[in-house]
Specification:
This protein has 225 residues and is α+β, with helices and mostly antiparallel strands. It has helices at 3-24, 118-121, 166-177, and strands at 50-54, 57-65, 67-68, 75-77, 80-88, 94-97, 102-106, 113-114, 125-126, 184-187, 190-197, 207-214, 217-224. It has a domain at 39-130 and 163-225: Immunoglobulin-like, CATH 2.60.40.
Length: 225
């Protein structure tokens, strides 16, 4: 890759991130790479579903589907699937990491899915433990039909699903951010989440191939159900 192409790629990535954060009302500084802590690495690579040696390191990972595991409890995403990945190696060794170094092939599809920056994933996050408050009922007419409006009569549009209050949503996004794979030069072991756009059901996934091509070398991890 030439220096010009590299600079152009960084510029496009910065513009994309700023656009996503602005649309969601979240500052780019709030989710800047390096602020996320990642997940605690497990005791050994064998504690993950798949492992692969790459240079002096071992890459290990779990494919977790539409689940988004965090230290404060599980979240989900309908639009993305997640991989919990970890790098192990010699004591105090460092590896340079970026989400752009990973791609995913599902059920043998020809074209792999590129990993996405966390800023693009936030909008699709859900908390399965969040229970929306019941809306207050409006006044009813003598005929028993609500006079306050709300989509009760025939032909009315389907009511929109309840929205999580902004403070709760912000807390949920920050909770997920802390579990994202840290970027930049990191001391091993280091672990965290990667995200890939995919709306298919978890039950339909039979074969997953995670591909890594980065500073440490190349590797492919395979998950079968």
């Amino acid at each position: 890759m030439t220096p010009g192409m590299h600079d152009s790629r960084i510029a496009r990535r910065h513009v994309l991130a700023m656009g996503v954060f602005g649309a969601l009302g979240v500052s780019a500084q709030a989710v800047a790479p390096g602020e996320n802590q990642g997940l605690p690495p497990r005791a050994a690579p064998a504690d993950y579903q798949a492992q692969e040696k790459v240079g002096p390191f071992t890459v290990a990972a779990d494919f977790v589907g539409h689940a988004v595991p965090t230290l404060q409890g599980p979240l989900t995403s309908e639009d993305y699937v997640s991989v919990e990945i970890a790098f192990f190696g010699p004591a105090d060794a460092k590896v340079k990491l970026s989400f752009e170094e990973f791609s995913l092939r599902i059920n043998g599809k020809k074209n792999p899915i590129e990993s996405r920056q966390f800023g693009m994933v936030m909008k699709s996050l859900s908390d399965p433990e969040w229970i929306p408050e019941e809306p207050a009922e409006g006044p009813k007419s003598k005929g028993g039909i609500s006079a306050g409006g709300g989509g009760g009569a025939a032909g009315d549009p389907k009511p929109l699903p309840p929205k999580m209050p902004f403070p709760l949503r912000r807390a949920m996004e920050q909770k997920a951010l802390k579990s994202v794979l840290p970027e930049g030069e990191r001391t091993v072991p280091v672990a965290g989440l990667l995200f890939f756009p995919y709306r298919g059901k978890d039950q339909s996934i039979q074969l997953v191939e995670l591909m890594y091509e980065g500073a440490a070398g190349k590797a492919m991890l395979t998950f079968r159900k």
